[in-house]
Amino acid sequence: MPFFRIVAAGLAVVLMLASDSFAQKTATAEKSDTDDRYSRRANHDPNGIGKFYMGREIAHVMGFAGARWLERTEREEEERLTLLVRSLKLKPGMIVADIGAGSGVISILMAEQILPDGKVMAVDIQQEMLDRLADNCKKRGVTNVVPVKGKIKSPNLKTGTVDLIILVDVYHEFEFPYEMKQEMSKSLKPGGRIAWVEYRKEDRTVPIKLVHKMSEAQVKREASQEGLGLKFVETIDVLPRQHIVIFEKANE
Ligand SMILES: C[S@@+](CC[C@H](N)C(=O)[O-])C[C@H]1O[C@@H](n2cnc3c(N)ncnc32)[C@H](O)[C@@H]1O
């Protein structure tokens, strides 16, 4: 056999063995996750945590250092927050849960719209964010925002008490999206709504890292998962960078 053929055959065997061992490693890594709803991959986006759910990678949680970015003055022009809040059709007396409230920018904008009896339950898993949120409310004289310490699998809200849940730029960071959806759905009153507000992945010009964006189709797929009791209502496309995808709790 000519020399070059022997070398080529040897190379093919090495490549086959290498790809087999890669496939085995990937399979082992995916199986080793504690829950088969989720999988783990070694090869992933550096802005993600290497954990995958329904075909997308979960993003890193924005740390407390990001609070000033959330409060930047240009945000109104870039994201039209007042228009976002107007689109939610808030009414006096509503109980609104702002899950992943951060330093409270959106909670504070919503608080006035639901007076005199309404309340915003401002949920976050980072105590520093909740402390800053409480300070921000105090500075502005806002008294109907209640800070709530959430857990990674639950927003810690009472069953059947919430009219509207709003998720602004947070759902893609949930480490346990399935468990969070179950708990959020439980906390809603019949007919209560969830508004997913996510940066549009379909739009390459939106200047946000890929794993921090979600397409409308992906949001709809995840929100309409069986067993959650949620049904699609509408997508509101009035914002420059995000879509607002609304689901409603079906009457049991
Ligand atoms: C990018 S910030 C958005 C803050 C706020 N919604 C805003 O737009 O100004 C995301 C926030 O979600 C919080 N978060 C992440 N996972 C969470 C979870 N499972 N439950 C509650 N909050 C969570 C983070 O701590 C962070 O403060």
Describe the structure.
The chain is an alpha/beta fold and 252 residues long. The chain has 2 domains: 3-59, no CATH class; 64-249, Rossmann fold (3-Layer(aba) Sandwich). Helix content is 34%, strand content 26%. The protein contains 8 helices and 11 strands. It has helices at 3-31, 67-70, 75-79, 81-87, 105-111, 127-140, 177-187, 216-223, and strands at residues 38-40, 48-53, 56-59, 95-99, 119-124, 145-149, 162-168, 188-200, 213-214, 230-236, 242-249. Strands 4, 5, 6, 7, 8, 9, 10 and 11 form an 8-stranded mixed sheet that branches. The longest helix has 29 residues, at 3-31. The protein starts with a helix and ends with a strand. The model is unreliable at 1-33 (pLDDT under 50). Bound molecules: S-adenosylmethionine. S-adenosylmethionine is lined by residues 61-62, 70, 99-102, 105-106, 123-126, 129, 150, 152, 155, 168-170, 173-174, 180.
Q: Topology of this protein?
A:
Layout: H1 3-31, E1 38-40, E2 48-53, E3 56-59, H2 67-70, H3 75-79, H4 81-87, E4 95-99, H5 105-111, E5 119-124, H6 127-140, E6 145-149, E7 162-168, H7 177-187, E8 188-200, E9 213-214, H8 216-223, E10 230-236, E11 242-249
Parallel strand pairs: 4-5, 4-7, 5-6, 7-8, 8-9
Antiparallel strand pairs: 1-2, 2-3, 8-11, 10-11
Bound molecules: S-adenosylmethionine.
Residues 61-62, 70, 99-102, 105-106, 123-126, 129, 150, 152, 155, 168-170, 173-174, 180 line the site of S-adenosylmethionine (SAM).
